[in-house]
Design a protein that fits this description.
With 373 residues, the chain is α/β, with parallel strands linked by helices. The chain folds into two domains: 113 residues, Aspartate Aminotransferase, domain 1; 232 residues, Aspartate Aminotransferase, domain 2 (3-Layer(aba) Sandwich), CATH 3.40.640.10. 38% of the residues lie in helices and 14% in strands. The protein contains twelve helices and twelve strands. Strands 2-8-7-6-5-3-4 form a seven-stranded mixed β-sheet, with helices on both faces. The protein has a three-stranded antiparallel β-sheet with strand order 9-10-12. Strands 1-11 form a two-stranded parallel ribbon. α1 runs antiparallel to α8 and α2 packs parallel to α8. The longest helix is centred in the C-terminal third of the chain and has 17 residues. The protein is globular and about 60 Å long. The structure holds pyridoxal-5'-phosphate.
Length: 373
């Protein structure tokens, strides 16, 4: 089995597919039944039954109106998200500072539609989330891959010079970064924000894993730096990946631009109702985060004890290296033992998501078995 979608397929002559998409393949990690899935950075804890019941009650309530379109602007949901972010950051945002969509991937796409496009450039610091350059390509935005240090950290002055030189419209910074798990300090983010402002760019801070980190959120920079926009998700810390809810925190002018490029009625009434209820239950849904952080440290220590090297992570996954052989082969060897991890196409490295205690034990047992080969 291949660990990613096959690239390089040929398309029929008659299909008027855009030239820039001809070499593309669909994004997606394998979804394999009956294995321990530690490959997509999901939260391993199912929703508590109390939260499930409340969601079902709420959906029953609103289902009487399903013949009507949903609130196009999702005001109630955005108001609740603003309160959640204010509690976390001590800022004073309201619904005008928040946009919500079907996962933060849709947020990213909506940003590209508004601020990218032909004759425009975006820059990111790789290795990082591969969906950023993917959406750049889909929207016809030029993509420049800036670099990180050998320990996957951002050298802020170097990155700022790169921004001044390239003069992009969009700058992407993922923190904690996927796949490395490393985070960037608020002081360094502000250096990038200022450089971005000088060249008329937005700095998009992708905080999909923000709740797992002890760094402050970049939302605390928005009042001083209106070109900072922060993309977040309910997929990870809220254990809500299946519901598809992401959101943006930004200056109201950025949100107004989102209203121009979003599809009408993009967020269903069912999603809005479920997400509002989940936010009301944030404490319950996030009660497993401490365990995930503790397990992250336990699995990292086990990887290091095994003679491999875990990159210190602030997220719910661990990038590791130091094994002999090729990443793809080791990935397959884990899968042969029923443990699905991620080959992120960075030779010499693999990534494992932190699962439940039992799932992590299975990963560690497979690792010991492989190492004693
Ligand atoms: C850095 C980063 N951003 C965004 C996303 C997308 O998350 P979602 O679309 O589920 O909100 C992911 C998912 O893994 C991610 O790793």
């Amino acid at each position: 089995m291949s660990n990613e979608n096959d690239a390089g397929r040929t398309w029929p002559q008659w299909l008027p597919l855009r030239e820039n998409l001809r070499g593309s393949s669909p994004y997606g990690a394998p979804q394999i039944p009956h294995v321990i899935s530690l490959n997509t950075n999901e939260n391993p804890h199912p929703l508590p039954s109390e939260v499930r019941d409340r969601i079902m009650d709420r959906i029953a309530e609103i289902s009487t109106d399903l013949n009507r379109y949903p609130d196009r602007d999702a005001i109630q949901l955005r108001t609740k998200l603003a309160a959640y972010i204010n509690q976390l950051s001590h800022e004073r945002f309201d619904s005008r500072n928040i946009w919500a969509a079907n996962g933060s991937n849709e947020i990213l796409q909506t940003l590209f539609l508004a601020f990218g496009g032909s004759n425009r450039t975006a820059i990111g610091f790789t290795p990082s989330y591969s969906v950023h350059p993917m959406i750049a390509n889909i929207t016809g935005t030029s993509w420049i891959a800036g670099s990180r240090d050998s320990d996957f950290k951002i050298h802020s002055e170097g990155a700022a010079s790169g921004i001044r030189e390239v003069k992009p419209r969009l700058v992407f910074l993922t923190t904690p970064n996927n796949p490395s798990g490393t985070s960037t300090s608020i002081a360094d983010i502000e250096v990038l924000a200022r450089a971005s402002a000088e060249v008329g760019a937005l700095l998009v801070v992708d905080e999909a894993y923000g709740e797992f980190s002890s760094e402050d959120s970049a939302v605390t920079l928005i009042v001083r730096n209106p070109n900072v926009v922060v993309s977040r998700t309910m997929s990870k810390a809220f254990a809500f990946a299946g519901a598809r809810v992401g959101y943006l925190v930004a200056h109201p002018s950025v949100i107004d631009a989102m209203l121009v490029t979003r599809l009408p009625y993009h967020l269903s009434a069912l999603t809005q109702a479920a997400a509002e209820t989940a936010i009301e239950c944030a404490d319950l849904l996030q009660s497993g985060l401490d365990e995930i952080r503790e397990e992250r440290e336990r699995v990292s220590a086990a990887i290091n004890l095994n003679g491999w090297k875990a990159i210190p992570s602030s997220a719910n996954f661990i990038l590791f290296t130091g094994f002999s052989g090729v990443s793809q082969d080791l990935w397959q060897t884990f899968l042969d033992r029923g443990v699905l991890i991620r080959d992120i196409s960075l030779e010499g490295y693999l990534r494992v998501t932190v699962g439940t205690r039992n799932e992590n034990d299975a990963f560690i047992a497979a690792m010991h078995e492989i190492a004693s080969y």
